[in-house]
């Protein structure tokens, strides 16, 4: 696992946006997996700036969702489809036809999960999957004790995750759905490059367990240790509990600049 410690979220966003730009330069039709929430916003802002400056061309890129709430009506502003369209697809100048995601309002949710899992494979697989991490170590909505071999499926949100997400629903936890569709950990691990961005002291313990702890279902993000190309980008606050922080700084500083992430 590659660990990169940056001064702040903006720097992390710019670093990851540069990696996406390099991916698009050699594979213009890359399938980019995106995450929602506040953590990846610096990435999308930096990538949009690169596109507007003519430094990246996403015109042939494809976008896919990591997860989706179950039960929100189509077009709900906090459905993850709406969020991705608003924060990623539209700013990058893409069309909705470039976007794929699970149907959280389907009558047959289990069928919708299986269909989306198949669709990712039929699309050639995800080239780069962006990830955030929960305070309990979840990725996507794979909560603690999720199977490390799990596929796209419906999950019940923990109370802590609903509390964390209430800020997107006018701080009203009663509006936060109880269930989601999420790519499973096994599905996530099939992406060619996994990039996790974590910022803030509140994520420090989860980051330390992910990077330096054992691979365990109790910390779903620890499964990234099993991936051949996983990058964890953290700011100083999120890195504050890493025992090997100095080693990670030195290792990345010695890496040739042309290699990027």
Automatic annotation (TrEMBL):
GO cellular component terms attached to this protein's record: cytoplasm
Reactions listed under catalytic activity: alpha-D-glucosamine 6-phosphate + H2O = beta-D-fructose 6-phosphate + NH4(+)
Top-level EC class: hydrolase
Boundaries of every Glucosamine/galactosamine-6-phosphate isomerase domain copy: 13-226
Site (Part of the allosteric site): 146, 153, 155-156
EC number assigned by the record: 3.5.99.6
Any one GO MF annotation of this record: identical protein binding
Active site feature: 67 (proton acceptor), 136 (for ring-opening step), 138 (proton acceptor), 143 (for ring-opening step)
SUPFAM superfamilies per the UniProt record, alphabetical: NagB/RpiA/CoA transferase-like
Keywords: Allosteric enzyme, Carbohydrate metabolism, Hydrolase
A Gene Ontology biological process term: N-acetylglucosamine catabolic process
Described purpose of this protein according to its UniProt entry: Catalyzes the reversible isomerization-deamination of glucosamine 6-phosphate (GlcN6P) to form fructose 6-phosphate (Fru6P) and ammonium ion.
NCBIfam families: nagB, PRK00443.1-4
Family indicated by similarity: Belongs to the glucosamine/galactosamine-6-phosphate isomerase family. NagB subfamily.
Name recorded for this polypeptide: Glucosamine-6-phosphate deaminase
Name of the gene encoding the protein in the UniProt record: nagB
